[in-house]
Amino acid sequence: MFRPKFILMSAFALSLLATGASAQSEKTQPAGKPGNPLVTALWFSHLYATPQALTPGKDRQLKLALIAALRRKPDGLSWDRVSDVFEKSTFQKIAGDGDKITLEVMVGML
Q1: 63 CB contacts (<8 Å, ≥6 apart)?
Q2: Which of 81, 75, 64 is nearest to 103 (CA)?
Q3: Which among 22, 28, 42, 45 would be 20 to 30 A from 63, CA to CA?
Q4: Does position 27 have pLDDT exceeding 50, yes or no?
């Protein structure tokens, strides 16, 4: 009598542990930190930039382009500074009527 209860309690405890472990693994990408514009822009670029801009050999160029764009306008990326990183149609869809993608928009899309 004791053994079936022990087995049942053990199975229940294991199912609770498995449920907790699977719930923790659902979130695969950490949330963007709006406090660091370069990191936000880099994550955003990794999702929406052209494949040519994301090759390992162009990593330094990508970062320099993002740094230059953020120095000029710290609240976002303007088309004239990142035209070699994004396709124009993609940039325009995200930017809407303006010529700039703000950090708020980037964080919201991550």
Answers
A1: 38, 42
A2: 75
A3: 28
A4: no
Q: Would you list the domain boundaries of the chain?
A: 37-109
Q: Can you give the C-alpha Rg of the chain in angstroms?
A: 22
Element (H, E) at 79: helix 79-82
Average pLDDT over residues 9-38: 60
Question: CB neighbours (10 Å) of residue 65?
Answer: 21
Contact 109, 44 (CB under 8 A): yes
**Number of C-beta neighbours around residue 51 at 10 A:** 7
Tell me what pLDDT residue 25 has: 46
Half-sphere exposure of 45 (CA within 13 A, CB side): 27
Q: pLDDT tens, 32-77?
A: 455 789 999 999 999 999 999 999 999 999 999 999 999 988 889 9
Q: What is the mean pLDDT of the chain?
A: 81
State the Cα angle at 70 between 67 and 72, rounded to 5°: 110
